[in-house]
Amino acid sequence: MIQRKALEYLKEWKNKDNRKPLVLRGARQVGKSTLVEEFSKEFPVYLKLNLEKPNDRELFNQYEDIDSLLRAIYMHNRKEIEDLPTLLFIDEIQFSTKAIALLRYFYEEANHIYIIAAGSLLESLLNIEHISFPVGRVEYFPIRPCSFLEFLDGIGENFDKKLVESLNADPVHDRIISLFREYTLVGGMPEAIVEYSKNRDILSLRTIYDSLLTAYIDDSEKYAENNNLTNIIRHCLSVGWMHAVEAISFEGFGGSNFKSREVGIALRALQKAFILELVYPVSNTQLPIFQNFRKKPKLFWLDTGIVNFASKIQHDVFSVNDIQDVYRGRIAEHIVGQELLCINNSVLGNRHFWRRDKSGSDAEIDFVYLYKGDIIPIEVKSGNNSKLKSLHMFMDNSSSNYAVRVWSGRLSLDKVITKNGKEFNLINIPFYYICVLDKVLDSII
To answer: What pLDDT is attached to residue 189?
Structure first.
């Protein structure tokens, strides 16, 4: 059992004074149901419904008032009604519009019951059927693939996990960098990590990745409002993995004849399902930052392990000593982006990269990160400081005195001077510390 960081949030939610029903949002197979099963151990009484099952779903059609519905749910679960802390988990809630509507009444009339809802296709089906959750009566929490720390827990490397968490990994730097390369290879899907932990054999995961890709493609018609959009989504899911971290054009995406508008709708449907993110550039170096939706977005998928498998580059990742040497550095950038998203607990959390808004300029920063009211540029680069031309350009126009370079080297701090004479601090962070980025920044800034 992988100890998920999200479990800490669920425990905090449990103790809130003004607790609302919690809706877990995330892609298929990221571990939503398993997380709730683990969390249920906190409660004397645990009730569960899966609304994909007709008998479970019918309960919400039979009973109009909350009291009667609750009694029926207890009996359905073969549980006595007791005055004890009770968790009710409603899985696949998107299959019942009545259940979604009733969440507000659970909040208003039965707030003694702790309610969590989830659904693997929640985002897309709600959009297609124009269903919405009761405004102000529920709260949301994203469940994403496992972080590097969770990966270490899943494969039994808890000693090294503690070293990373406490920023004391330098004495065993090479060992933990090697473990991070394994994480980059496997990715963060819980089932893949559990299987990999048995014998550290990447080939044993082929069936798992295959099943995930097949399931996403099979779900295409559920993301789409018509058959044409279904075909476009299937095309994106078939070839799009090879375009990870590319700045993509919608028109003719992946060598197709599809129009820009059609591809845009398809990719945004997959984004609502948490399968990918279209990351648009920002051009300013001061807060607030604004995404420029007129520019090409970069394509980030939910999991680097699936990208490796679907793009047939697992052998490349496995063979190199430095992941920055794979796929022209794109896999290194993708896994850093995946780690950055794991830091964010908001369903609205997204990533940003910087591109200079000047004709003819190709200056670009891999990520910009908001830290205590400041914009910190992040470059995923090896080599010496003089090659970080875009970073120097960014810092010349920034009020910040700190920048981050992610690499395979050790944690260090350099004083750097741009060609225009600005001095700034370059924090060189090993890949394995991205999951504790705020702690690293706190220790230096």
So the answer is: 98
Mind listing the pLDDT tens digit for each residue in 152-177? Answer: 999 999 999 999 999 999 999 999 99
Using CA atoms in the order 218, 224, 229, 232, what is the torsion angle rounded to 10 degrees? Answer: -40
pLDDT in tens, 332-389: 999 999 999 998 887 778 899 999 887 767 889 999 999 998 999 999 987 666 578 9
Closest among 69, 121, 68, 71 to 91, alpha carbons compared: 121
Give how far Cα 248 sits from Cα of 235, 256, 257, 356, 418, Å.
Answer: 15, 13, 15, 17, 31
Closest CA to 188 of 345, 51, 339, 390: 339
Element (DSSP H or E) covering residue 32: helix 32-39
- Average pLDDT of every residue of the chain: 92
Query: Helix, strand or coil for residue 425?
Result: strand
The encoded tokens of residue 189 equal 């899907």
Q: How far apart are CA 306 and CA 212, in angstroms?
A: 8
User: Domain segments of the chain: what residues?
Assistant: 6-142, 148-339, 353-444
pTM of the predicted structure, to 2 decimals: 0.94
185 with 308: CB under 8 angstroms?
Answer: yes
Q: What are phi and psi of 398, to 5 degrees?
A: -110, 150
Q: Report the amino acid identity of residue 265.
A: I
Q: Which residues contact 146 (CB under 8 A, 6 or more apart)?
A: 2, 4, 31, 154, 188, 189, 190, 193
- H-type alpha helices, 294-384: 304-310, 314-319, 330-343
Look up residue 369 and give its amino acid: Y
pLDDT band at 327 (very low <50, low <70, confident <90, very high): confident
How many percent of the chain have pLDDT more than 70? 96
Confidence of residue 234 (pLDDT cuts 50, 70, 90): very high
Q: Which pLDDT does position 143 carry in this prediction?
A: 95
Question: 3-state DSSP call for residue 300?
Answer: strand
What is the CATH architecture of 6-142? 3-Layer(aba) Sandwich (3.40)
Tell whether omega for the bond before 85 is within 30 degrees of 0, i.e. cis.
no
CA 211-1-86 angle, to 5 degrees, is 105
Residue 332: both structure tokens together: 């290194």
H or E segment and range at residue 186:
helix 173-186
pLDDT at residue number 384: 61
Q: How far apart are CA 161 and CA 169, in angstroms?
A: 9
**Residue 271 CA to its chain's centroid (Å):** 11
Instruction: Please name the residue that has the structure tokens 């990351």.
Output: 279
Q: Name residues whose C-beta falls within 8 Å of residue 58's C-beta, 6 or more positions apart in sequence.
A: none
